[in-house]
Amino acid sequence: MVIWHQKGRLLTGQASTFAAASALVTEAVAVRGACSMAVKERFNTVICESDSQALIDSVTRGPEWMLRKIESIVKDIWQNVSKILMVKFEKVGRRTNMVAHTVATKAREGTLPVLWLTDPPPQLRILIDREARVGVGPDLSYG
């Protein structure tokens, strides 16, 4: 999970490993974590980005679109976002989401610290500089 400020500055990131049934489940867990962190940090506006159209559809289109294997995770996401003033879910391509993709890959390989706050790991710094976002949203962007 990677969290950006609206001005394109990296706020924080987290890498975790766990057994998941699919990449979709993993992506859903990351979005749930980002939404939970947004509630905890009292962000008013959140933009959640994912390269999974299936996840975006499950979260935004209602129960009839929800995939069974992520149903409980999506319900947790809905519960979290109900506490946030404005939430937007966007489908982005992997090229736009390279820092988050690299975090997931390096976490799987066990080559990335679990949590970093103000000092990202060296293997991410170049990507972060390249992918720094400008004007993505008022408070938070998850990638």
TrEMBL record:
CDD domains: RNase_H_like. Residues 1-107 form the RNase H type-1 domain. This is RNase H type-1 domain-containing protein. It comes from the Eukaryota. PANTHER family: OS05G0353850 PROTEIN (PTHR47723), RNASE H TYPE-1 DOMAIN-CONTAINING PROTEIN (PTHR47723:SF24). It comes from Ilex paraguariensis (yerba mate). Pfam families: RVT_3. InterPro entries: RNase_H-like (IPR053151), RNase_H-like_dom_plant (IPR044730), RNaseH-like_sf (IPR012337), RNaseH_domain (IPR002156), RNaseH_sf (IPR036397).
